[in-house]
Amino acid sequence: MNRFVPNCKTLRNRMLSEIGVKKVEDLFTHIPEQVRMKGLLNLPAAMSEMELVREYSRLACTNTSAGLVCFRGAGSYDHFIPAAVDSILTRSEFFTAYTPYQAEVSQGTLQAIFEYQTMIARLCGTEAANAGMYDGASATAEAALMAMRVTGVDRVLVAGSLNPSYREVIETYLVPGGFQINEIPFGPDGLLDPDAARALMQGGAAAIMLQSPNYFGLVENIALASETARAGNALLVVVADPISLGVIKAPGALGADIVVGDGQPLGIPMGYGGPYAGFLATSTAHLRKMPGRIIGRTEDRAGNVGFVMTLQTREQHIRREKATSNICTNQALMALANAVYLSLTGEAGFREIASQCYHKAHYLEAGLVKAGARRIFSAPFVREFALRLPGDAFEIEARLVSAGFLPGLPVPGLGNDAMLFAVTEKRTREEMDAFIGAVSKACGEVR
Fold first, then answer.
1. What's the number of CA atoms in the CB half-sphere (13 Å) around residue 158?
2. What does the pLDDT look like over 242-294, one tens digit per residue?
3. What backbone torsions phi and psi does residue 18 show, to the nearest 5 degrees?
4. How does pLDDT run across 101-116, given as a tens digit for each residue?
5. CATH code 3.40.640.10 region(s) in the chain
């Protein structure tokens, strides 16, 4: 309620009591009665930071051509970023910092990474997380290698509903090394086919690799996938959308052994694909098979708390054949953005953001279906969904761009009429209603 007043009501009352007055207004009694303001200022209601930025952006659009209203996701999402995130990131002690090899002079950077690890582990429902990865795709590929190190098996099963860009990166990592990748098809509901997964497990596998919500935005049955993996002595790797974890259960709590993903939704701009920051979380039992770094908290002989680099598993620090990865550094500045964003939103705020994404996505989906689009899948979704449009998706896309919208992503793999839409907390009812109208018009023009 009083965002820019750092003192709570109780503390203000204590200060007023200390100086001998009952209320703040008593401090202004020296102002003559006839000129003293009475009542409230004739001002509109206060706005939140997000609403204020939207209003100024609207005013800016009257002078120049601004960006399209975004309804696209597929791995990169148009979330609101509080101004404080960049304000903190660009402080010199963070913005110019490099890998903190000298722990004794890098306490601030080390503590920031430690706090990041703690937040990611809590978000994923795991015991530990590393200091960050390059991005979600490479973190997923690293998780495949990690699973093979843990199990000693050189084959992984990848869900067909995994982001295709992630799949390509997994192949780039694994195929040159002679490792085997098999795809588990998805069923008519858009979810992992459990019978196909069980059949493929018969040949032995290091892991089942599953995305939830998957590429189509659908929430997978992680617990069932975990049971299937365990029956074959394999691990379950889950690629998680961090925002969705504000409204659905953490993968670690459902049986995932390794949880990875991209931190882009947590305070990082879409930025033409990067730089982003991947995350990787797991149980303490697998820490020494995990790539990257872990920052730990300790005490010196005098009992002073300090932060140290606890594990460093790259080839520069240990014998080359013992290294778990050739990752040269974590995306420390982007990981800091994640930590700052999560700190600013808090648990309640984070849940509210996820909840808004959920409800707004369902509002838009219902509106588009009413306007003539058809559902492809019936499984639950969070903020992303695929629909069939009454016309060619690429033609409709071009018309919607001309109308001022960045529409969903055409998905030829589901048909020429399929489009994948995403909705974040930034989208207003007015924007969604206007988009529904524009889609209806574009569809009518291309029929």
1. 24
2. 999 999 999 999 999 999 999 999 999 998 778 899 999 999 999 989 988 88
3. -65, -35
4. 666 668 888 999 999 9
5. 83-342
Do 209 and 143 form a contact (C-beta atoms < 8 A)?
yes
In the DSSP assignment, the letter for residue 251 is G
Residue 140 CA to residue 247 CA, distance in Å, equals 23
Confidence (pTM): 0.87
CB atoms within 10 A of CB 180: 16
Rounded to 5°, the CA angle 300-301-303 comes to: 65
What's the CA gap between 260 and 137, in Å, rounded? 9
- Where are the domain boundaries for CATH 3.90.1150.10 in the chain? 50-81+347-446
Q: Which helix (H) or strand (E) holds 128?
A: strand 128-129
pLDDT, tens digit (0-9, with 9 covering 90-100), for 229-238: 999 999 999 9
Measured between alpha carbons, how far is 53 from 56 in angstroms, rounded to an integer?
A: 5
CATH class for domain 83-342? alpha beta
d(CA 206, CA 200): 12
Nearest to residue 129, comparing CAs of 142, 116, 147? 116
CATH number for region 50-81+347-446: 3.90.1150.10
**Residues 255, 226 contacting (CB under 8 angstroms):** yes
Q: Report the distance separating Cα 250 and Cα 121, nearest Å.
A: 10
